[in-house]
Amino acid sequence: MVSTGNAISDGQPLPRVAILGPFGTYSHEAADRYFGPTARYNEKLEIKDVFHALASSSADFGVVPQENTIFGSVVDTYDALRAMGRGYIVGEITLRIDHCLVARTGVRLDEIHTVLSHEQVRNYVDAIALISNQALGQCRLFIAKHLPTATTERTTSTAGAARALLDRPHGHAAICSRVCTTLFQGLEVLREAIQADSNNYTRFYVLARGPDVKLPMNRPRPSESHRTGVIRIIIRQTAANTSSSTGIQDALAMLNTSISRIDRRPLAGVPFDFVYLVEVQDEQQGQHRSVPEWKQYIETKVEEVLKAGFSVDLIGAW
Amino acid sequence: MVSTGNAISDGQPLPRVAILGPFGTYSHEAADRYFGPTARYNEKLEIKDVFHALASSSADFGVVPQENTIFGSVVDTYDALRAMGRGYIVGEITLRIDHCLVARTGVRLDEIHTVLSHEQVRNYVDAIALISNQALGQCRLFIAKHLPTATTERTTSTAGAARALLDRPHGHAAICSRVCTTLFQGLEVLREAIQADSNNYTRFYVLARGPDVKLPMNRPRPSESHRTGVIRIIIRQTAANTSSSTGIQDALAMLNTSISRIDRRPLAGVPFDFVYLVEVQDEQQGQHRSVPEWKQYIETKVEEVLKAGFSVDLIGAW
């Protein structure tokens, strides 16, 4: 059961988690898998609003999409990270984007004559966060095979398709995420993973107000096979052209750590100066470092790069 | 004067240059500055169509936006580059995105009562290629100061605003690129660079059908202060996690060359495998290598990385 703010407190104040809304999105589902019912969720209209909530301390944690395996990096998240002051990345969670066929409890597949889904893409973030422009397209094979005579109808959001079922007669179904069946009473999943492409995953960052905010102890922890850190490096092209050791290749070499992702965004206001967001991983085989040990290790590396004259800081470790 | 296909041939067949259309976009302006009147321009609706034209040999060259200093990398261009087979990047050109106030010849600034502009953003590529969602916004200060009583009106494209002036009475002006005044007879630039932000540049790649296609000898060459190469590296995360020398950091270190840009895109069909597009620059101070010398130098480096087991190739040098 997904919490939207009605979870029962165990005496401790529930952590406030800002998510990219509306409720029922995959960001909501990711947050729920990470924090479970031990959190109070707060839906935000845009990714930057999640970061604002952390900066103003109106949220303790935030969950934002970082990249999707089809659409790539989420530009709005990277643009917020390049300017992030107080926030800190404390975790990650990856979801397979499964589209489900959902209907009112008791409705059979052969009764469905109308399928509701969100296909309209308002902007690039929508495309990545909701993967909504693919929902009907990706499920067309399923519909053609199992519901050949059904008509399709567009709704304004994924959750909107699920909510609309409550006011509709039997025979209506919605394409949406599994989390939607837990938002509204009386719905159930008829068929799961009805999309054609199973290579559709979205990876999310879990953010905290700051590096020292403690994660809830009783959260259901995802399996952790590696330690990850995110390092922010600013490269000024003018400087890079005049000196021999201020290029991104020098900063990366000095880190001397396994790199799993490099992303580049323009530095606001200065043409062709860049911010690199670099994800590093623990190279230590077998026994992994504890999070504090790993954080200290990366901080030492970052300090070395800083001493060499780079604008660099650690903006996350887990 | 910008050519749209009416240029006079000097006996040699004119190179066919595919651009991101419609005519009047900044891609058109960039192509015109690079090739001048010695080319036959062919407008394409989408970036991928420019690449298709090169792959099918229906164009000799192509001009596509690579990055903008406000919006960042152009995802559609990088997605085409990651899959590019025959094409090759042979040059670059950077334009400052200046919005001009354009009117019919003879119209004075104090006569303007209506300003036409393209503000609608259809998609992310529009946002970067046309910078159109900023046109009115960026020029609001100018309008407030110089045309405080003017009303604004939206058109479907930048060139559309300019074209519409021909059918309008005196008193109408358009916000568009300078190139638009050369597309239609009877228009002139009333004021130049009316945008608030002067840090708005777009950098374009010039592509050829293949590495050995010769650039027109009489093209107006932009000043060349450095040699650049673009290297494509595929990193499979599964492999990177099991071996100690197949991470992107190892490939970059082996290149042992100054790196000016690193961009990452998902590898189609394989979750969390990536394609890196890496721009390198000649480190040699003072006397620069010739293009063939530089190309050979980079090819040697790429060969070393290839021998170490990486999927890597050179997709441009100039």
UniProtKB/TrEMBL annotation, chains A, B:
Gene3D superfamilies: Periplasmic binding protein-like II
GO MF entries: prephenate dehydratase activity
EC main group: lyase
Involved pathway(s): Amino-acid biosynthesis; L-phenylalanine biosynthesis; phenylpyruvate from prephenate: step 1/1
Claim: Amino-acid biosynthesis is one of the keywords in the record: yes
CDD domains xref list: PBP2_PDT_like
Superkingdom of origin: Eukaryota
Keywords: Amino-acid biosynthesis, Aromatic amino acid biosynthesis, Lyase, Phenylalanine biosynthesis
One Gene Ontology biological process: L-phenylalanine biosynthetic process
EC number(s) from the headed UniProt entry: 4.2.1.51
InterPro entries reported in the protein's UniProt record: Chor_mutase/pphenate_deHydtase, Preph_deHydtase
Recorded GO CC terms: cytoplasm
SUPFAM superfamilies tied to this protein: Periplasmic binding protein-like II (SSF53850)
Domain Prephenate dehydratase: 16-209
PROSITE patterns from the UniProt entry: PREPHENATE_DEHYDR_3
Official protein name in the record: prephenate dehydratase
Organism encoding this protein: Coprinopsis cinerea (strain Okayama-7 / 130 / ATCC MYA-4618 / FGSC 9003)
